[in-house]
Amino acid sequence: MGGGLAWYKYPDTLKEFHNRAANIIESKELQKAPLRPDIVILQGGSNFEELLKGFYVKMIIECKNWDFSYWSKDIDLQIIPYKEIFQPDNMVLVSLKKVPEYVKTKLNGEGIIIVDEVYPNGRGETELLKLVRNFI
Fold first, then answer.
1. Which of 9, 29, 44, 126 has the least CB density, counted as fewest CB within 10 Å?
2. Which pTM does this prediction carry?
């Protein structure tokens, strides 16, 4: 992204982001940096150089395709760290499969919206589209 421009200019906005990520990785004793969410919607520039001057994250959408039992560990290793590092206005976790209600309640209390059964013509497809329209 940006042809490596961020590494040569390294503006304050990226320094703050880098420091947040480093602190969270250390405090949670993570083995790797959770820095690759599936979809990130940014606001603040129409090109890469403008984004380097300042931006904020409007929304992160993280997608899960397997049963909850396969990705439940990702909540602490990936999803919550994404929210803490990127500090999005809206954090949405979408799942192809059903997510247990207690998990939805717990994460909703942490500001993470879960939309399950997201697939063509599935119940969650309409809900996700409404969220994106309302938040963006």
1. 29
2. 0.83
